[in-house]
Amino acid sequence: MAPRSIARVSGSSSSGRMRPDTVRRFDLSSAQLASSEMARDINRDIVLEFIRFRQPVSRVDLSRLSGLQPSTISAIVEDLIEEGWVREGAVVRSGRGRPSTMLLVNDDLVTLALDIRPSQAIVAVVDLSGRFLSHETITTAKDPETATAKLVKEMNALRKRHGDKTFEGIGVSVPGRVDPVTQRLLMAPNLGWEGYDLRSALEKAMGLQVEIDNDANACLLSELWFGRLEGVRNAVLVAVAEGLGTAILAEGQLHSGFNGLAGEFGHIPIDPKGPVCGCGKRGCWEMFASSRAALQTYRKQSRKQVSDIRGLLQLAQDGDRAALKAVKAQAEALGHGLRLVTAALSPERILITGELTSCWEICGPIVQRELEAGMLAGAAPRLTTAGDGYLARLSGSAALLLQRHSHYHRSTHISRRAKAKA
Ligand SMILES: [Zn+2]
Questions:
Q1: What is the whole-number distance in angstroms between the Cα of residue 251 and the centre of ligand 1?
Q2: Cα torsion angle, 410, 414, 415, 417, sign
Q3: CA distance from start to end of the chain
Q4: What is the pTM of this model?
Q5: How far is the CA of 275 from the centre of ligand 1 (A)?
Q6: Which residues pair with 354 in a beta bridge?
Q7: Ligand 1 center to 288 CA (angstroms)
């Protein structure tokens, strides 16, 4: 009997004979035949995921969890140990069975994670389980070259401090959009580094692989790798701040679209007579559902001074009528716009991040109500809040690197690492 493999193109009977039950359409200009090597790579990623989520875990458990043959599990685990992803732990005797060696992810393998904000940047060392070993905050210099030089200096110091670890690469989260191919910054209005080739600069200075992405994507990845999204393949994260940022998980992958700008829902006009947005168009969703919108509504209705959104949310929680009205209008607009998101992507889960979530007992039910009212059919996506502090962005930056390494990229990456070590 052929070893049972999860990564098959179509279903097969237990005898191992292929029994295609669906036909897929492939783009022949970029099609690759699924080699047995590719199937092995996918199975290896699946086993590594089981080890990450269920550690410490035995080979027997992995076989049961994954449905892969014990012999297949043994071979994959051997590879993962040899490549440095996994290590063996304690030997455990349970009941009458044979003692089994528990497996854990290798905590000696770490990534450098960078969260770059307009005013400050944080550099951290994160391990495969998402634990922070160190982090340092530095101020972000205005021009990208000076800023990069400071970051490099800090990263080198951290690398030295953790000299016993193997550094996998650098994951970077930025407040802007990144070209999915060149990874140059396409749009970073608050940072102003458009066109700067941050990846090449960091790769050259550090000699490590670099992956850069938008901060909302980093938050979504953090939930996916280290949070509560296990098993979810279609989700949308909406970051409510000065504007509205969105990250899309489609069929288990971050979706950036043709030019890296997929998910700019914040700039879809919902009222052609609405106020002019920073993008130059009128009545964009973010003109009604962002923190800026809530502040503007409040300032029109109250003479009380409020410096920022945190102050406004505090007033709302204290029962200030004008503040409550402004925050509720924001929540309503947010829920209303989520109809666009749901109609476009039909996610299973919608995650909301941002200051607004500190007032979720007031806003949550309103957003939920608006979302449900807009469903064309079926149940509304589950609505939850998610962390978006610098820790979420940093662990997401680390995951960015792990994500890009998985599947088909891994073999090339490993050969690269082997070469680097040689
Ligand atoms: Zn706009």
A1: 28
A2: positive
A3: 39
A4: 0.77
A5: 10
A6: 240
A7: 11
- What distance in Å separates the CA atoms of residue 280 and residue 24, rounded to the nearest whole number? 42
φ, ψ at 276 (rounded to 5°): -75, 130
Pair 105, 129: CB distance under 8 Å: yes
Helix axes 59-66, 36-54, angle to 10 degrees: 110
SS3 of 248-292: the string is EEECCEECCCCCCCCCCHHHCECCCCCCECCCCCECECHHHHCHH
Residue with tokens 């979720």: 360
The alpha carbon of 286 and the centre of ligand 1 are apart by a number of angstroms equal to 7
Span from the CA of 417 to the centroid of ligand 1 (angstroms):
43
The predicted pLDDT at position 28 comes to 66
Instruction: Say what the pLDDT of residue 211 is.
Output: 92
Domains of the chain from N-terminus onward: 43-104 (1.10.10.10), 109-208 (3.30.420.40), 221-388 (3.30.420.40)
Residues in the chain predicted with pLDDT less than 70, given as ranges, are 1-35, 388, 404-422
At CA 268, angle to CA 265 and CA 273, rounded to 5?
Answer: 150
- Expressed in angstroms and rounded, the spacing between residue 54 Cα and the centre of ligand 1 is 43
pLDDT tens digit sequence for 205-250: 999 999 999 889 999 988 888 877 878 999 999 999 888 889 999 9
**265 Cα–ligand 1 center, Å:** 9
240 CA to centre of ligand 1 in angstroms:
14
273 C-alpha to center of ligand 1: Å? 13
Distance between Cα 345 and ligand 1 center (Å)? 20
Cα of 290 vs centre of ligand 1, distance in Å, is 11
- pLDDT on residue 336: 95
Distance 237 CA to ligand 1 centre (A): 18
Q: What is the structure's pLDDT at 84? A: 83
By the 8 A CB rule, do 376 and 343 touch? yes
Cβ contact 100:106 at 8 Å:
no
Question: How far away, in angstroms, is 171 Cα from ligand 1 center?
Answer: 29
How remote is the CA of residue 230 from the centroid of ligand 1, in Å?
33
Query: Percentage of residues in the chain with pLDDT exceeding 70?
Result: 87
* Cα of 246 from ligand 1 centre, angstroms: 13
Q: What pLDDT score does 333 carry?
A: 97
